[in-house]
Design brief:
Elements (H helix, E strand, L loop, with lengths): L10 H31 L4 H12 L9 E2 L2 E2 L4 H19 L5 E3 L3 H23 L13 H27 L4 E4 L4 H20 L5 H27 L9 H32 L5
Parallel strand pairs: 3-4
Antiparallel strand pairs: 1-2
Helix pairs in contact: 1-8, 2-7, 2-8, 3-5, 3-6, 3-7, 4-5, 5-6, 5-7, 7-8
Length: 279
């Protein structure tokens, strides 16, 4: 005969606690395996791997791409400006102590950023129309215009995406905007002008820095978006207090970004083999 003591069994609680403690470690280990595995199997050197990243997100049309010596950048002029400026904006926020800013800029700044998006969209559409002979377009496009409008779009992405990332990932995002006012906006525009000058120069020693930083911008933005999705999927939104805790969503976010790039490369390669004219 079994006597009831009235005390709750701790077996189930202990098992659940152990599973919860192993879960985060398993997520990090699996993410690290995916990240390292994709890096290891990627063929070629640094520039070749940068080309693979660019191949997934950019048309890489040579006529619309800057050359450094005889080597094209991994991204076209517009994409180069976009991802370099976005990365530059994030680095600026880190240097200013606002990388965890959880508020959007004030309305006048947002209006200006939206104007930048409109300019980027108009130039992109005008440039696209030139693919079709005979179609009217507003003006003759150029790589300089593509690069400049791309930087405007990139800085806008950094300023607007960062607060959404921070309120999704962090328990206590900083109660301040990414851009505080016109002075910050002018600083970002100056930074974008420096990006334009560097890419426009075509100076061969800048090939590696510009190529690698531009594709790093691709990876960072994809990782930010994927990390927000992972945080919501794991019900970890607004949970991280330290960077180590944040790796629980950032590491799988990076792993997903690399898998997406690999998948897009495979899809584009398959399409290109069937339709060579789209290669």
């Amino acid at each position: 005969m079994v006597m009831e003591t009235g005390e709750p069994s701790t077996a189930g609680t202990a098992g659940g606690s152990k599973a919860r403690s192993w879960g985060p470690l398993l997520i990090r280990v699996l993410s690290l395996l995916v990240i390292s595995g994709i890096i290891v199997v990627s063929p070629g050197g640094l520039l070749d791997q940068a080309d693979h990243v660019g191949y997934a997100v950019c048309h890489q049309i040579l006529e619309r791409t800057y050359f450094f010596g005889d080597r094209p950048l991994p991204l076209c002029a517009r994409c180069s400006g976009q991802y370099l400026a976005a990365l530059g904006g994030l680095l600026w926020l880190a240097a200013a102590g606002r990388i965890r800013a959880g508020q959007l800029p004030r309305r006048p700044i947002i209006v200006m950023l939206l104007v930048f998006l409109v300019i980027w969209g108009i130039d992109g559409l005008n440039s696209y129309l030139t693919f079709f002979p005979g179609l009217p377009h507003l003006y003759e496009p150029s790589n300089l215009l593509r690069l400049a409008t791309g930087t405007l779009e990139g800085m806008t992405l950094a300023a607007l995406l960062t607060p959404f990332f921070n309120i999704t990932v962090w328990r206590h995002p900083l109660p301040q905007p990414t851009l505080r006012g016109g002075q910050d906006l002018l600083g970002w525009m100056f930074m974008s002008a420096m990006v334009v000058a560097a890419v426009q120069s075509g100076w061969p020693p800048l090939l590696y820095p510009i190529a690698l930083l531009s594709v790093l911008g691709v990876l960072v933005l994809l990782t930010m978006v994927n990390s927000m999705i992972v945080a919501l999927a794991l019900r970890r939104d607004g949970a991280a207090e330290t960077w180590w805790e944040a790796t629980l969503v950032i590491m799988p976010g990076l792993a997903l970004a690399l898998l997406e790039i690999l998948l897009l490369n495979l899809i584009r390669s398959a399409i290109s083999q069937r339709l060579p004219t789209l290669a």
